[in-house]
Amino acid sequence: MKKSTFSERTALGRYITGFIVSLAATLIVYFFVQNRIAGGHQVLSHTFLMISIALLAIIQFVVQAVFFLHIGKEPKPRVKMIAFFFMLLIVVILVGGSIWIMNNLDYTMMTPEQTKTYLQNNEGL
Amino acid sequence: MSERVNAGLHGESAMQKQAKVLLGFWIYLMTDLVLFASLFATYAVLRSNTFGGPGGGQLFNLPLVLVETILLLTSSFTAGLLTIVLSRGNRRLVMVFLALTFVLGVGFLVIELTEFSHLIQDGNSWQRSGFLSAFFTLVGMHGLHIAVGLLWMLVVGYQVLYRGLTTAVTRRLRLISLFWHFLDIVWIFIFSIVYMIGVL
Asked: What is the ipTM of this complex?
């Protein structure tokens, strides 16, 4: 009986941790983006802002996967975890591959004038 | 482990069934994530194809999106608390947390649909540009999942009231909670990629 209340408490603690971290990550991202749009004093450069949005999204994703979906908590043949990581691989290939290929397509499908402007603007030619 | 031994032979087969159902549902969730991934890829590709129309910066109402996000995050949290009171077998608390999750989910959906209807009224429907088609497909697909989840909660809430916390009802409640966490995880990326990066 005592043991079950203990695990219940840790479960509650896990959910509360996950909730607070996710909330904090959301609010931090929102604050920086709102600050950027309002055009006030810029704390972060554009590139750094992009990186921090991505980083905070990934942190939130990992935290929710661990604390809400309990990845890695299942007993040993960890079929769910394997399915999860395989899915992540597919997602990365699908999204990364699409962006890569379509950007290349845009690049190679330009009209001569577009190519000229592109080279002038982006590659300093 | 010790719980399983104590539960005896009959209990173990029920546990095994629960584990099988959870695994099957988990695999469904993983394939659903691949569906969302393809929509994210479409969105990422079509993001700048606004066809002379407005982009994300002109269209999105950030404070509203923040409220939406916090509502969904809180509902995911209450869905987690639901599983804790569920293992305690407290029917009243289960109903309370299920109702809380449901109400927060409805709040989320209402805000989203309001946003959609404003966009459509202003002439910025999915027919306006490739960007808006991708936006409505991605965010709308998430909203559709939320709507189905809410309907599911209504049905299982009814079962909790009239059948009590039987093995089958308990299992369904666990699946709903898993489904809801999953939808919140998808929303992290919609929030970051579509809304936050979208307005920059």
From this structure: 0.87
Q: What's the whole-number mean pLDDT along residues B34-55?
A: 91
Mean pLDDT of chain A: 86
> Which residues in chain B have their CB less than 8 angstroms from residue A12's CB?
81, 84
Asked if residues B46 and A106 have their Cβ atoms less than 8 Å apart, the reply is no
- Quote the CA–CA distance of B170 and B164 in Å, as a whole number: 9
Give this prediction's pTM: 0.89
Contact between chains at B181 and A99 (C-beta distance less than 8 A): no
Quick one: pLDDT at residue B10?
Answer: 56
B165-172: Cβ within 8 A, 24+ apart: B165/B86, B165/B89, B165/B91, B165/B94, B167/B14, B167/B18, B170/B86, B171/B18, B171/B21, B171/B22
Structural domains of chain B, with CATH? 33-199 (1.20.120.80)
How confident is the model at residue A115, as a pLDDT?
84
The residue of B77, B83, B85, B190 whose CB has the most chain A CBs within 10 angstroms, and thus the best one to mutate to test that interface, is B77
Half-sphere exposure of B66 (CA within 13 A, CB side): 15
Cβ neighbours for B118, distance < 8 A, ≥ 6 positions apart: none
Q: What is the pLDDT of residues A68-93, one digit of tens each?
A: 998 888 787 889 999 999 999 999 99
In B147-181, which positions are buried (b, 16+ CB within 10 angstroms) versus exposed (e)?
A: eebbeebeebbebbeeeeeeeebbbbbbbbbbbbb
Test mutation, B12, B20, B26, chain A, max A CBs within 10 A = B26
Rg over alpha carbons for chain A, rounded to the nearest Å, is: 22
In chain B, what residues touch A53 (CB-CB under 8 Å)?
192, 196-197
